[in-house]
Design a protein that fits this description.
Elements: H1 2-14, E1 23-26, H2 31-44, E2 49-55, H3 62-76, E3 79-84, H4 94-113, E4 116-118, H5 123-136, E5 149-150, E6 153-154, H6 162-172, H7 188-203, H8 207-233, E7 238-240, H9 241-246, H10 249-264, H11 275-279, E8 284-289, E9 292-297, E10 300-305, E11 316-317
Parallel strand pairs: 1-2, 1-4, 2-3, 4-6
Antiparallel strand pairs: 5-6, 7-10, 8-9, 8-11, 9-10
Helix pairs in contact: 2-6, 5-7, 5-8, 8-10
């Protein structure tokens, strides 16, 4: 049982599951969420823990997954809420829709209880996330991965691997459900899981741990960079182009991205790549992508949302 004790101590060290602190566990029935539920009960106590299962009715096994979660919660003495959310025809990206439904339902349940919302993301998921984002999107943020806490949302298992959660469940006599869609190569994340992560393990057995630690260090450094950007903007939502040009190039890119993301209300990874175009614009407007548009008037840059109903021109300068 040494492995279970080690895992329990790693999770306890995060401080995310405290005795008596209410928590709602997102329970899919898979190994990671089953492990998380048992660990939560052991650390926070039965009275503090409840669970939420979302049945999307996407697979023939969906109802069996729900039954498994009911049985597990009865075994552990945990209250379970079930939400059935069939996919609407206009849902679009399947995985994004399912994530939004799950987190939305979880946030509502946690808010009603004044609780944290715990998901079963592991160090393996963290490594997969960093690798996928690094390949799919530019910029430093691709390397930051997932934080252990994001508002009410907590990820207590980010310091343990998927192999360790499986070993924990086996040692504790806890069964789990396997979702075949997690192996479907049609999804890019699954291809990362099946091909890239094992290849990295062959290069170095500590590959997952090294990627996770790198993400932790970069998040700490990102907090420092955010303070530097705050200083450069001095509380304003605009900046003189001459001042922007005088900043170190890396800092100027961060300032442009901050202005774009504040304006668009979303991540704008492409905005920073338009720094040179902004500096050469003169008075005019420039589409930054991702719903943001740079506008320079009187030598001052501001960023606004791209007008709805039409795309902003790539560049429209009066000089």
């Amino acid at each position: 049982m040494g492995g279970t004790r080690e895992l329990l101590e790693r999770v306890e060290a995060t401080g995310l599951l405290r005795a008596g602190t209410p928590v709602v566990v997102l329970l899919s029935g898979g190994r990671d969420s089953v492990c998380l539920l048992d660990v939560a009960v052991r650390l926070a106590g039965h009275g503090a823990v409840s669970a939420l299962h979302v049945n999307y009715r996407l697979r023939d096994e969906s109802d069996a997954d729900e039954d498994h979660c009911r049985t597990l919660c009865a075994q552990l003495g945990v209250e379970l809420a079930v939400q059935r959310s069939p996919r609407p025809e206009e849902a679009g990206n399947l995985q994004a829709w399912a994530r939004d439904v799950r987190l939305g339902a979880g946030a509502a349940a946690a808010g009603a209880r004044g609780a944290n919302l715990a998901s079963g993301h592991t160090a393996t998921d963290q490594a997969e996330t960093v690798l996928y984002r690094l390949a799919a999107s530019p910029g430093r943020r691709a390397l930051l991965g997932m934080a252990e806490r994001d508002g009410r949302l907590v990820r207590p298992l980010l310091r343990v691997t998927r192999r360790q959660t499986a070993a924990y469940c086996t040692a504790r006599g806890l069964s789990w459900r396997d979702d075949a869609s997690n192996e479907d190569p049609v999804y890019a994340r699954n291809r990362v899981r099946a091909n890239l992560v094992p290849a990295l393990r062959e290069l170095h057995p500590a590959a997952e741990a090294n990627i996770v630690r790198t993400a932790e260090l970069l998040r700490e450094e990102a907090a420092v960079l955010d303070e530097v950007v705050d200083t450069a903007l001095a509380g304003r939502d605009r900046i003189a182009v001459g001042h922007l040009a005088a900043l170190p190039t890396a800092l100027a890119r961060l300032v442009v991205r901050r202005l774009a993301e504040d304006a668009a209300g979303r991540l704008c990874p492409r905005a920073a790549t338009r720094l040179d175009d902004i500096l050469a614009l003169g008075d005019g407007a420039l589409d930054l992508g991702d719903g943001a548009r740079a506008v320079v008037e009187g030598g001052v840059l501001r960023v606004e949302p791209t007008p709805q109903g039409r795309s902003a021109p790539r560049a429209c300068s009066s000089t």
